[in-house]
Amino acid sequence: MDVNQFKKNIETTFDDVSNKYDENKFFALSASRMAGLVPFMENMKVLDVSTGTGTIAIEVAKKYRHAKVEGIDLSSGMLKQAKNKAQSERLDNIVFKQCDVDNMSYSDEVFDIVTCGYALFFYPDMEASYQAICKTIKPGGMFVFSSFTEEAFSPYAEVFLQRLEKDYKIEAPSRIRERLKTKQQIEELAAVSNHKSVNVEHHTIRYPITINEWWSLLNNAGYKSLLNQLSHEQLIQFKQEHLAEIEVSSEDGVLVLNTDTLFGLVHV
Known about the structure:
By secondary structure, the chain is of the alpha/beta class. It has a domain at 3-149 and 175-205 and 260-267: Vaccinia Virus protein VP39 (Rossmann fold, 3-Layer(aba) Sandwich). It is built from eleven helices and nine strands. A seven-stranded mixed beta sheet has the order 3-2-1-4-5-9-6, with helices on both faces. The chain has a two-stranded antiparallel sheet with strand order 7-8. Helix 4 links the parallel strand 2 and strand 3 (94-98). Helix 2 packs across helix 3 and helix 6 packs across helix 11 (232-248). It is globular, with a radius of gyration of 19 Å. 35% of the residues are buried.
């Protein structure tokens, strides 16, 4: 698959899940923590790349009413949700626009802070996109981003992916599955662009969910792109098989969802 087709698939997937994306509680929990990592600066300008439904951008805009916050994303569906949420919060210091992070038109050194939640690992050329993002940050500014740990979604995601691959020959791109899972990988990414320092914070995010909520998560996040490759009949069969497997690991139909997160704090 070429880069343009890959990006189109990402855009379509997240348009598809946008209405229920925020049902995944870990996004809000992570966004709250990320906003807490954003320091106060006078007249600060903040860019949230791959903003999704705007959860991080909105948290920062609420915390710092003096800041000018901008959120960009490929998906018009996600941006629609973000705009609606910002309006309901009566925020006048935030704007959203559709934009590909690889085709940004910003000048160099224009933002004090750039944030990015759970998205860098999706970028086809992650290192090049990272460098382009860093160029928009002023000296003395920060890039704050998040990614999942190696243990996140374990063991349920492995069960999900193994059955898809074994029985349906559908495999998640390995480059996405393996990226930014460790402190070392985050430090290696930071090293591709000039920076003063990088810190990595581990944040524990775990809570109980039902088996049906796990299935909803799969249908309301990036995993949806894999499920979309199944026919209607295959999807029905896969759901029955997968949930039967997951139930074995549950306690009275309840799972403990691990969405432990790494936050990279790069000082430019």
